[in-house]
Amino acid sequence: MEVVLNEATNGGHHRQPQNYNANGKSESAQQVTNGHSKTLNIEDNFENDTKFSRQPEKDPIDLQFKDVTYTAAMGNILTKREKKEILHQVNGRFPAGQLVAIMGPSGAGKSTLLDVLSGYRIKGVDGQVYINGQPRNMKSFRKLSCYITQDDRLQPLLTVQENMLVAADLKLSSDVSRKDKQDIIDEILHTLGLTKTKNTKAQGLSGGQKKRLSIALELINNPLVLFLDEPTTGLDSSSCMQCVKLLQVLAKQGRTIVCTIHQPSASLFKLFDQVYVLASGNCLYQGSTERLVPFLEDAGFPCPMYHNPADYVIELACGEYGQEKINSMIKATGNGNDIRYFKEPEKLSNIQCQKGASNDEDNEGGLQATSSCNQLKVLLRRGFIKTKRDQTLTYMRILVNALTGLMLGTLYWKAGQDGSKVLDNFNLLFSILMHHMMSTMMLTILTFPSEMSILVKEHFNRWYSLKMYYTSVTLIDIPISVICCAIFTTVIYYMTGQPLEWVRFMMFFVTSLLVVFVAQSFGLMIGAYFNVVNGTFLGPTLSVPMMMFAGFGVSLQDLPPYLYWGSYISYLRYGLEGIVGAIYGLDRPTLDCPEDAYCHYKYPKKFLEDVAVKADQFDNDVIALLLFLFVLRIAAYVILRCKLMALR
Ligand SMILES: Nc1ncnc2c1ncn2[C@@H]1O[C@H](COP(=O)(O)OP(=O)(O)OP(=O)(O)O)[C@@H](O)[C@H]1O
């Protein structure tokens, strides 16, 4: 089969026929820029022969949208909500098997339109999107499509192969064997020229390679529709060509590929089948690239000689030639309704849009390709690799716990068995809680903000459910937290001369560990809602009242009655009660008192009375801490879910 594509560069003054074979490869094309022509072979600069044997497995998708309006709500719940209409009843059609470029000046609404069409943006959207003439069923559509964001959201510590394997394990059914998965990965990497970088960590890739890896990850499950937000931004001209040529090949196989693009060069522009031009949320032109020049002529604004039509139409869209020209182009295209300038408009008329609301019900089970159990397994494996690679943090955590333990141990040497140093020992117990709280909370406050962009992308592209992501985040840190807490507790317990009894040690350790996990949950909850700056401010700030209400400094019996409720919501209170009970409870006998010292608290009972700590409440303290743990973890999950929804 041969498709003849007329070239539409150079103001239409030097148009040459361009022959494409069935693989979508140009056999001999003429590149014409600025009045000069040179032969362009589609394979130029491309490492591979741009073949991709994986054909789409389902019927091609014709995407249509009618009267799409997007209104953004600005401000927050405290300030008055202002509405801003960004897309104004735009229409359009992206036929199957076409590579479509959404073009327009900065702020025209390109990314917004892509967000709406991909289903990423749902709030504030009006109008209808049709898939092969039927109202879009969001769930089914999401199973067929993928969204590749402008910024490369990759796991930096994983190699290309590891990134691909994680994606394959999450996006391909568990029935596919490891060998078949590897074959698929190898072919995609080969097609995208990434074979040589297979063992390079994503953080070590060049911008172009990162972009290609982002595409490679989404190609694994062979999507029918690809949305790409500015896939060429930040790439040099050769990488841009490579990237768009790949998309062209994928489109020729029957996929619908829509990408936003800033002012493309003439040679890049002609690689697209269709172009959709936006200006201030309105459609100026939609149709084939080669018919842009005739359209401009028909509209009465012919493209000047030796001018790249892509540049010229952007200049028009920017309003450089006046607002009235923009208005008349919007009118000429019927804000995207007119399909006369498409490549074969007569072929498109047989798909009629069915009236009716979109049916968002889906009978085909969950959104993800694999079971929850598999998602958790793969995410834990990925988390383990990340922890192993990020050894600085792992070692630092262990080292900090050992060193702080040694430091405090030296400072409070054998204070635990000295009847004259009971208050010092009490200070020490509180410092231990402070250490557990601050060291874990501050670390976890950063967990979600630093992973948010990757989470949003992977979750939207159905790699895993939020529940499994959250469970993996919760589980992955347990071993290292337990190790750190065990090192710290053992060092400090022995050095500071606390009673060497297993029961007391275990009570001490269990309470410390629970405080660690509760502090972690508190950090996760803050991190789930706030960004890094606000989170790192709020975490320690909210911890201060919690310390005050724990019974340190001001004992609980001295708290004013109207503030007593604070002690119930301070998890540190239960932590302090637990470890003080472990050290001074269980009917501990009278403490040793050095001959030359005054031992006010020689009798542990007297001390417990004075600091108003009930030493027989260990079970209740554990229950209270477990309750905090449970409630805060659920709250963090709910907040994270709401945040993900709010972003859309
Ligand atoms: N949530 C929002 N709240 C307020 N304004 C918004 C929101 N989302 C988008 N906008 C505005 O809508 C306009 C279009 O934004 P969009 O990101 O779609 O533009 P774009 O054409 O992709 O621009 P660029 O090429 O610079 O990325 C911009 O003026 C932007 O400020």
From TrEMBL:
SUPFAM superfamilies assigned to the protein according to its UniProt record, in alphabetical order: P-loop containing nucleoside triphosphate hydrolases (SSF52540)
Keyword check for Zinc: no
Keyword Acetylation: no
Membrane topology: Multi-pass membrane protein
GO cellular component: plasma membrane
Ranges of residues in domain ABC transporter: 63-305
GO molecular function: ABC-type transporter activity; ATP binding; ATP hydrolysis activity
UniProt-annotated location(s): Membrane
InterPro entries listed in its UniProt record: AAA+_ATPase, ABC2_TM, ABC_transporter-like_ATP-bd, ABC_transporter-like_CS, ABCG_dom, ABCG_transporters, P-loop_NTPase
TM annotation in the entry: 394-413, 425-448, 469-494, 506-530, 537-556, 622-640
Pfam families: ABC2_membrane, ABC2_membrane_7, ABC_tran
Compositionally biased spans, kind Polar residues: 17-42
Cited Gene3D superfamilies: P-loop containing nucleotide triphosphate hydrolases
Location (main, coarse): membrane
Region span, Disordered: 1-57
Keywords: ATP-binding, Membrane, Nucleotide-binding, Transmembrane, Transmembrane helix, Transport
Basic and acidic residues bias (residue ranges): 48-57
Family: Belongs to the ABC transporter superfamily. ABCG family. Eye pigment precursor importer (TC 3.A.1.204) subfamily.
Name the UniProt record assigns to this protein: ABC transporter domain-containing protein
